[in-house]
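Narrative summary of target 7.
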Amino acid sequence: MREFAPAKINLHLHVVGRRDDGYHLLDSLVVFGGAGDWLSVSPADDLSLTVAGPFATGLASEADNLVLRAARGLADVAGIRPTGALVLEKNLPVASGIGGGSADAAATLERLNYVYPMDEELHRHLGDLWFAQNNFHGAIREYNAVIAMSPIDKASAQFNAARAYFAAGEKDKAEDHLLASLEAAPDFRPAQKLLLQLKDSNEGK
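Modeled conformation, tokenized:
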């Protein structure tokens, strides 16, 4: 099983605040490129990582990295021991500012989402996050924690996911995210307009 980890290009990036724990709040406009790393997972009794590819040497000195941390973190949430033979094909330059490390971590979560036994709600949540990231190229407000988001930011995040599902023809899921968007911010016009468009498309079946 292989997962693509695309490069991320920031068209703009602003630090808009700082939380009490030291993490920053970011406001960015991003697009995802066609170049990227590949992450594969095979069953194994223990957790391991092999790094290959043209930029593998950039990670050779790291005994730990975001891929392993993501795997251990997900296993911890699932309440299981981390396992799996991970292979990272490193095609993106290390520390080049194009989001390779975070994309690798996200790809790890997506692959292991199908391997680790977890409850249905967590499976669905991880799938929604990955789907929105890989199918919507546009404005994304990136924050380090959901609790730091204002109502309009939460509405925007749900709207972005809804647009991705709507474009893919997943209308039921799009409607769920639009309703969540309007629950966070009832007067959020983009969500109101897309919900009307969705309803009109359903009536025109």
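Strands lie at 2-18, 24-42, 47-52, 84-89, 139-140.
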